[in-house]
Design a protein that fits this description.
The protein is built from 11 helices and 9 strands. It is α/β, with parallel strands linked by helices. Helix 2 packs across helix 3 and helix 5 runs parallel beside helix 9. It is globular, with a radius of gyration of 22 Å.
Length: 275
């Protein structure tokens, strides 16, 4: 649909991470009204309807996946089943009823509990600023196949986590490796293969007046583990949050360490950080 210059200027003021959704909403409402061109008037009308009707559209949670998962060359596995299971967990938690009882006044989208799944470390679904962020992960492992020292794995790694020495297979720096699997795909000999497959989990990210990035639980988790972690986090949120406080505000160091010890038995506390 064609947009006027004034309408384009207005939509550029919308935060980039929701701009596509807002644009689609404006076009859908304009089309429903029989318009074939979006003007500033349509943008403003959509904004007014959005603000006035926000409380009716709040459902208590937001669940996001990758924007183009099916066609993304970087994706690790298929998270569609996990997304379905996460949706079921969030629906069962009845977060809308909880928010209605906890928040004084009309509900807004920023009150909703936010969970996001990314199928590679590029994190197009912005897991680092969500209450719970889940990232697909595939760790490389060395096989018995001799290394040809071609360097393809080193060139494929965007994080400088792979290096070659004079002897043996490629070496992986675990402190730098994001478990994206690119080195595995690039290896022509099979010296590197898929190792531990699973998910990384990050907790307590948010934007707003006091933004913070999520903190990562150490280790890699199965799909079942992820579901149990989400259930535990939602229970903690419902127990501690009052007045619309975000999960990041109730997830203090002690709560984070308790979750880490529960789900990552080798957690020593050394990764604790001030967010």
């Amino acid at each position: 649909m064609e947009w006027t210059e004034e309408a384009e200027a207005a939509i550029r003021k919308v935060p980039f991470f929701v701009r596509a959704k807002v644009r689609a909403r404006v076009e859908a409402e304009a089309a429903a009204a029989g318009r074939h061109r979006v003007s500033l008037e349509e943008v403003e009308a959509s904004r007014r309807r959005f603000v006035s009707g926000m409380s009716r559209e709040v459902k208590g949670y937001q669940l996001d996946g990758c924007f183009a998962a099916g066609g993304c060359p970087n994706r690790i596995g298929d998270g569609s089943r996990l997304l379905e299971r996460l949706e079921a967990v969030l629906q069962e938690a009845d977060l809308l009823a909880f928010l209605k009882s906890a928040v004084d006044g009309p509900l807004k989208f920023h009150h909703e509990f936010r969970v996001s799944l990314a199928e590679c470390p590029n994190s197009c679904s912005q897991v680092q600023i969500k209450d719970i962020g889940i990232l697909a992960a595939c760790a490389p492992r060395s096989t018995d196949v001799p290394c040809s020292a071609c360097g393809a794995c080193v060139e494929a790694c965007p994080d400088d986590a792979v290096y070659l020495d004079d002897e043996g297979p490629p070496r992986i720096d675990p402190a730098l490796c994001l478990r994206c699997g690119r080195c595995i795909k690039a290896c022509p000999t099979g010296t590197l293969a898929e190792g531990e497959n699973g998910y990384r989990v990050q907790l307590g990210g948010k934007l707003g007046r006091h933004p913070r990035l999520a903190r990562e639980l150490p280790g890699s988790y199965s799909e079942d583990d992820v579901i149990e972690i989400v259930k535990a986090c939602v229970a903690l949120y419902k127990e501690k949050s009052r007045g619309g406080r975000r999960f990041a505000e109730v997830l203090d160091d002690a709560a984070f360490e308790n979750l880490a010890r529960r789900f990552a038995p080798d957690f020593s506390g050394q990764r604790k950080s001030k967010a």
